Amino acid sequence: MQPQSYECAICGRQRNNEGDWFLLTESRWQDKITILQWHDQLAGQRGVQRVCSAAHAQELVVHWMTTGGLDYPFARTQVRRAEEKRTKLTQDSGMLDLRGARQIGELAIHRESIQRILRDSPHSLTAILDALLCALERNQAPSEEVVDAEPEVLCGSGAGIA
After folding, report:
1. What is the DSSP annotation of the chain?
2. Measured between alpha carbons, how far is 104 from 150 in angstroms, rounded to an integer?
3. How far is 24 from 98, CA to CA, in rounded Å?
4. Is 65 in contact with 17 (CB distance < 8 Å)?
5. What is the pLDDT of residues 39-53, one digit of tens each?
6. pLDDT tens by residue, 90-101
7. Each residue of 123-156: pLDDT tens digit?
8. Strand partners, 32
9. How many angstroms separate the Cα of 89 from the Cα of each of 24, 46, 53, 155?
10. Residue ranges of the domains in the chain?
């Protein structure tokens, strides 16, 4: 039996067990995205997106914020997109078994406020995205003290974002 082959949702690069990859999963019911450190058993589950770097995780989060879904259209084959659309209604991070996976962060948004912010002043999301990138970069080369750290919770709404 051959080991599972994984590729980055953004660039399509194959995972070769080197480097720090991230997993992202969404809860459409809660407008929430969860970012996890790589976990082999979770990586193969439906509804989990894999990215090869902090920058690609951030790019996928931006895509999720603007489109409402983690389905990144440019690095995916047509067959795989069609297969995932059939199961879209059953995909929710609340249904995934996240035990054993290390959560790096979680971002919950108010979808209507994000749409208004994107239309009126998209630069105001920079603070949220910068905080996300910092959290991801801190977790790319975990030290012993970082491994025991609590996951970061990033929240955004239409008011008060600078």
Report:
1. -PPPP-B-TTT-PBP-S-S--EEEEEETTTTEEEEEE--HHHHTSTTEEEESSHHHHHHHHHHHHHHSS---SSSS-HHHHHHHHHTGGG--TTTS--TT--EEEEEE--HHHHHHHHHH-GGGGHHHHHHHHHHHHHTTS--HHHHTSPPEEEE--SSS--
2. 8
3. 11
4. no
5. 988 998 888 999 999
6. 444 456 777 778
7. 878 888 888 888 888 877 544 444 444 555 544 4
8. 27, 108
9. 17, 12, 28, 25
10. 22-155
Structure tokens at 8: 């980055």
Cα dihedral sign for 113, 10, 2, 88?
Answer: positive
* Residue 21, token pair as written in the block: 């990859």
End-to-end CA distance of the chain: 52
**Residue 158 identity:** G
